[in-house]
What we know:
27% of the residues are buried. The protein is mostly beta strands and 153 residues long. The strands form two sheets. Strands 2, 4, 5, 7, 9, 10 and 12 form a seven-stranded antiparallel beta sheet that branches. It has no helices and 13 strands. The protein has one domain.
Amino acid sequence: MNSRTIVAAALACYASAVSADIEILQTLDFGTVAIKSNNRIERYTISKEGNNNASSNIVIFSNGTRGLFRLFNLPSNQNVFITTTIADLTLRSPEFNTDQFNFESLESLTVFRTDANGEVIVPVGGTIATNGDGSINFGVSPLAGTFSFSVNY
């Protein structure tokens, strides 16, 4: 049973009309897991609230954490609309010929209200899954993937 550290981070933020800035406070990190069996699709979810939930054949060695992103230099006390996009659906390993995880979905609210300083904290969760092909050759190196979100106001 191999364990793997899995991290995903937002690498881009696009804003309309007026420029906005982003600071990564905490990456979306799926922690360290091991796969006991891959005879069916196994899923691991971290909610936008930070709760960890894995199917029965995924063993969590270290809990993952939700992503937290600070958006700033936005208009104050205004609604901000967030759209998340997974840039790469496969979490990749630098190891040759190992199984990968699929980055299935992201979880975030879609509307936020900026504070008096024009700032908002955006929590992001996500779900990854195995392919269910029976192989458990997941290697031991970290996997990484990317997602982006656009900001409109």
